[in-house]
Amino acid sequence: xAGQEAVRVPGRWNPWAALxxxxxxxxxxxxxxxxxxxxxKVGGLLDTPEWSGGxxxxxxxxxxxxxSLSGGWEFTGSYFESxxxxxxxxxxxxxxxxALVTRRWLLRLLGRGRGxxxxxxxxxxxxxxxxxxxxxxxPVVTALRRRGASTPAALAYWVGNPxxxxxxxxFLAFVAPWQWTFTxxxxxxxxxxxVTALVSRLAPRDTGVPIPNAADEEADDVALRDAPRRFGRAxxxxxxxxxxxxxxxxxxxxxxxxxxFPLGGSAAEWGVAAVLLAAVxxxxxxxxxxxxxxxxxxxTLLGVGAGAxxxxxxxxxxxxxxxxxxxxxxxxxxxxxxxxxxVAGCALLAGALLWAIS
Length: 358
Description:
The protein is mainly α. The chain is built from 16 helices and no strands.
């Protein structure tokens, strides 16, 4: 028996070689889309610690204005100009998860059975290097769930990417008061490592692998020559299912920006209502990575208080209506909506914290 176990079938994967190839694909993509641009950005902030550029929401019109299709197109164009590299990498990494990462290894790392808090911890830690916005993370989350990743691990990876993005924390440390960075880090860690585990308890017991995939049954014994086919099939499937709904929802959010995000100069007089509104609408609006910084800075210059600013520091990056739509089927709509409500709740907590320490 020992001799038979040592025999390797020609043309079959060495799981570690496949994992190394996946790591190389992910590293090259992230180097191009994230690590090098962010390193350059930090270098610029070392010279001039001021945030360049304005709020992307201004592309869609002013707060309180009526729906505008032209504003929606303008916003969509600006948004995709900011995120297209990360979206491409997100789709490629997601396809590579399905084609290269053996299900046995993924279940060992992110599968159920070791407790929701442990899974949230691992998923959150794995999110730190990828540093994507919530929408660009969505294809990877979907792929992880197809391969059997647990609900808390997938949730933590989803919200951990934008909320605990190390680059954004560094940006905040350079251009904003220390209280902003502290609030983002403290409440973000609570959201990623604790709240996701609690929300995962709402997942049905029979959804360890929520979307059946016949190819998964032989994922640990796939022929080397099949990898390109599996990769292409996964990439095509996600491109034709996720990208169209991505475009439609981003366009709609841009067109209705004036109604969906009515916070402007007048919000300085709204008191607690501004904080509540920021927590709710911030969870729906879509922004690129670090897009919350100029938005919150602009509102504070208009006199909006620390409570609303703190709420937006969590609500704006953590989720959006776009990413909710993209991952809803993979995570279950019940869990996805509960996560959105939890983000709004954590945003209120962030508002209270920032108000208290400012």
